[in-house]
Amino acid sequence: MLRTCSKGCRMKVNIDMGAAAGGAVAELDLEELLATRLLVQGNSGSGKSHLLRRLLEQSAPWVQQCIIDPEGDFVTLAEKFGHQVVDAARTEAELTRIAGRVRQHRVSVVLNLEGLDVEQQMLAAAAFLGGMFDVERDHWYPVLVVVDEAQLFAPAVAGEVSDNARKLSLGAMTNLMCRGRKRGLAGVIATQRLAKLAKNVAAEASNFLMGRTFLDIDMARAADLLGMDRRQAEMFRELARGNFIALGPALSRRPLPITIGPVETSARSTSPKLMPLPEAPEDARDLIFMPGPEEASPVVRRPPPKPIPTDEILTQLSRPRLVPQPPAEPVFAVIDEAEREAGIDAVLREILEDPDAAFRSDAVLYQDFLVRSRIRRVPGEPLPLSAFRRRLAIARAGVDEGSDGETWAMALSLSETLPDDLQGIFLMVARAATNNDPCPSDAALARAYGSHSPRRARRLLAYFEERGLLVARTDFHGRRVLAFPDLGCETAPGHPDAPDETQRDAAE
Fold this sequence. Notes:
By secondary structure, the protein is α/β, with parallel strands linked by helices. The protein has helices at 30-36, 48-59, 77-81, 92-105, 118-133, 150-153, 163-179, 199-202, 216-226, 284-289, 310-318, 337-352, 362-376, 385-396, 406-415, 420-434, 442-449, 454-466, 501-507, and strands at residues 2-4, 10-20, 25-29, 38-41, 64-69, 84-87, 109-112, 143-147, 185-191, 207-210, 243-248, 252-260, 471-474, 480-484, 489-490. The chain has three domains: 2-260, Rossmann fold, CATH 3.40.50.300; 336-396; 398-508, Arc Repressor Mutant, subunit A (Orthogonal Bundle), CATH 1.10.10. It contains 19 helices and 15 strands. Strand 6, helix 4 (92-105) and strand 7 (109-112) form a beta-alpha-beta unit. Helix 5 (118-133) packs parallel to helix 7. Residues 4-10 have low confidence and may be disordered.
């Protein structure tokens, strides 16, 4: 419902969530929700997904929406409300670019994570949320970001996934709930287990809808968030399906029981219903034990081989062993590894001499590398894509992989712990530290990463600092210094806002 004043000015939009105590309409202030965020909690079967669907359907005409859907339940919104379904089976770079275009063109989307394992879901969600978070200020339009099963993307403790996936996903969820408001991102997170959800993510919500839960630890956290004592928390065990306790500036100033209203769409997967068994056919035995025409032929188990007699074994052992013949002369000429390495290095230098190479993907550069290698007749098999990315990262940093010295050996070893696209940036700043060169500017780091955004470069340095690889400080003149504890060296002071010398020379 849209309420306006007598002069026609916009007041607020109230969303009908269902019925409150006493038969009154349970309304949710949409504009207040965009500023204060929402946390939904309930065990499986409590009506949590039904609540989210009601909220999305009622608010679809008023605000852009983005749903992080791990089970593919919300793709049905596309048929009635025009949401675009984004299949998450893409690269992280593709998802980041799509997310930026989603905010630019203000299109409601459903990120379908169905079919991916947990780690792939975390990485895909982190890339998509990061792309929405990092858009330019001109595209900071209001967006309602709904994350179902939020405990998967912001776990309280480390699980079976890698540390990198957990950090990226948790960081994206933290940005959404803590810093997303100024960028127009309103987080709505739903979870089955409050105890499994990171506290710093849950604590940023000011509105709560608590459904049925049975575990004492979850009820205790729900009671703390709602300001209830432990005896009052027992009511969460008695809540029926579709019933929730609402609290928050967008819902109610006091705990208010509400019943979620009906929805217009339905999920693709529904809970199984009891139904009578069919009548037993007369040929039930044949239906079970006889293969159907469309089934594959059964696997035939071969009998084990007969044991070999002892006399035959002794005869085989007594036979003289054949003397191995010396290896034959190779048919093809022996490849000179030094010549091959020199040819590869020359091709890499040619590629990096192009000022636009930093802004091309590794796949495009790899195809260019293969063509140039054939032109130069580089002997041997071409480098695989993984080895090419490693050599390219080292070449971009101006480092020789075979350089002598323990410092470079340590730097190369530390770079191997990073993702492929970050190794070159780390080696670039490590080289500046070992040579005591000025700290590279944000523009230079962004160009080396293939981006035009200095903010992205600062995020990369913050990521290195979080992993304990370096320590950033600022001197009294506002210049940045990067120290490497493991390498025992640091860069000379350098202005972070200085222009990129490479780009300026190319322009001249």
